[in-house]
Amino acid sequence: MGRLGTPLFLGFSVAGLLAGALLHLAGAAQAAGAVWAGVTAVALVPAVWWVVSALRAGHLGVDAIAVLALAGSLAVGEYPAGAVIGVMLATGRALEDHALHRARRDLTALYERVPRTAHRYENGVPQAVDAGRVRPGDLLLVPAGETVPVDGTVEAGTALLDESALTGESLPVERAAGRSARSGVVNAGAAFDLRATSTAAESTYAGVVRLARQTEAGSAPVVRLADRFAAWFLPLTLVAAALAWLLSGEAVRAVAVLVVATPCPLLLAAPAAIASGLSRTARRGVVVKGGGALERLGHARTLVLDKTGTLTAGRPEVVDVVPAPGRTAGEVLALAAAVDQVSAHVLAAAIVRAARERGLETPRPDGVRERPGVGTEAVVEGRRVQVGKVREGGADGSRSDWERAQRARAALDGAMTVWVTVDGEPAGVVLLRDAVRSDAARTLRRLRTAGIERVVMLTGDRAEVAESVGVVLGVDLVLAERTPEGKVHAVRQETGRAVTVMVGDGINDAPALAAADVGVAMGARGSAASTQAADVVLTADRLDRLADAMDVARRSRRIAVQSAAAGMALSLLAMAFAAAGRLPPAAGALLQEAIDVAVILNALRALRPARGTRAVLDAETEDLLRRFETEHYELKPPLELIRQAADELDGRSAGKAPDRLREVLGFLTGRLLPHEHAEERRLYPAMGRALGGPEVTMTMSRAHAEIDRLARRLERHLALASDGGLRAEQLDDLRACLYGLHAVLVLHFDQEEEAYFSLAAGSAL
């Protein structure tokens, strides 16, 4: 029955029931009976059709009970009961349509917003063209308020983009010139130019639409609970009705049993709950390909994660800049970025990005020459600067102690190195690493709370790098240096033990995703192969969306089972009363209607937001988190001043050391300590209220106290220094103080980012 037929069926049934009631009250009992009989006969037609459709599909559902109840009501003259059953069937179908329409509304919105036109520059003037005609390299104008039609890069200026439809993020984000902008996001600021990098069919939003079209609610194992219910409930109902008739000799009792055992709307509870869950996940930037995947996700006990791009950012980031003696980190990074801004190498892009983020000026290079496998060199402000692989050493092949120390450090950290030389002399080294996602550790804790019992990291990366990430995140098992075939074998081993979720993003992850019970693809930057092989796609580049989806899956399944169990129990109780002659057919029909409506409405609770395992923050706390996260980002680079001061502290430089130490102390007292004190006064009380009390911030407050203590110790050392510089007996303690202060600050910043700042992007599901 279509969307139009259901309202007509409901309207006719309700009108007929009310008309019969009015006629009965007016004393026209015969006319009332005729109207009710007509409603019963009309309701019998779609009910029979539903049973026939079910038989064609290979199963006999409990709609058969409705047919028997309607036919029995006509046979024994219980027309009011038949009319009530007709209203009940019509109401159930209307509730189903409403539930599924609401549940799929968010998915439907995804492809209703497909960009259909683009403004392409032709002879310098933007012209409206069909989005399908845009080709890579075309220059487009994106007016204010319009949707970005294709993937591209911002050509000039800064774009302010609303990405909520694609990622679920509520706040607009800024994309500077050269940064990518994905199709499907809305320009929330001034008009900007976009250089297309793909066609509309190959763009991000087109991929999301294809995924959304695959989503359906009818295939989940928990939805088939109704069929399993019917397998024993239908025979039980027929036996109970027959016994009631045989033992009492009254056919009306059999009809009463059939009437109260008519749970057609009950069968809609499980599908409605699952479809509602699909709606909730879509709203959080997660596309689940069907109710079956959502139900299996709710059952999962083992989580297998790829490392690169899943637990880590998936791209190299500058983690440190170590200047050679006599130079500064800012100078080294600016020189490297000046040369690399004309290079297409992935490491060059990371260096240029880091320089821009730190607000460094990057002079224009001259005479740029790129040597594949070696690096890039150019003349920058009259000096020849080379950026690339490690120097081969001097004429005798030797390297300085400083260079050897940096090579050793990079090896221990598992970092990539980019060396910077100026006129043949080492100026510094840039260390890059694929950093662990700030939300990874919290997400894993949330997943364990939600029911995951075993976490496995599966990667093709080197064992030492994988182990270092695994230790930080506390995974149960690290499987490194695995080929795609090895990943498939490992996933199959895990699926043999428990329902297993595999999360990945690359082409090499696609076979493993297909082998898992539930494959989850990081779709924001993942490959097309992985998103096609996956059952669940995270359209936002955030791992915590997986925890959101699992919260929704478990809640939806719980509500579905709860609704089915409650309806079944109440129906059985009503059947007992009907068989004993305590519940006549008309009253039984009204009671069953009330039961079914209550159960359906309970299933629709899955549409409502719920906290799940995510911490719920108020707007003021979110604002505080974003403010202090921004300050963290700005304070991180200057932290290296502290370690550099410690590195330079030896007997030969003791006379010059006070100047560097005063610079460090100025940074501490002028910027860092005010930041820490403000956190203590404003952020920590708010986090205590949000997370359950002041105990949750105790360790962070203790770190603040240690930072204060070490800063005061440094201040006292400077006060004790003589006019000639530091005393020899101060050096060892000063080095320990500076190294300790640097270590505490780095650890403290990481802890705050993981424990607090990773919460800032979330809200109730």
TrEMBL record:
Q: Which residues cross the membrane?
A: 229-248, 254-274, 559-580
Residues forming the P-type ATPase A domain are: 114-212
Membrane topology term: Multi-pass membrane protein
Tell me the leader sequence span. 1-31
Q: Where in the cell is it found?
A: Cell membrane
Question: What main location does UniProt list?
Answer: membrane
**Gene3D superfamilies for this protein:** Calcium-transporting ATPase, cytoplasmic domain N, Calcium-transporting ATPase, cytoplasmic transduction domain A, HAD superfamily/HAD-like, nmb1532 protein domain like
Q: Outline the extent of the Hemerythrin-like domain.
A: 625-759
On whether Iron is a keyword of this UniProt record, the answer is no
What family is this? Belongs to the cation transport ATPase (P-type) (TC 3.A.3) family. Type IB subfamily.
Q: What is this protein's name?
A: Heavy metal translocating P-type ATPase
Q: What is the lineage of its organism?
A: Bacteria, Bacillati, Actinomycetota, Actinomycetes, Streptosporangiales
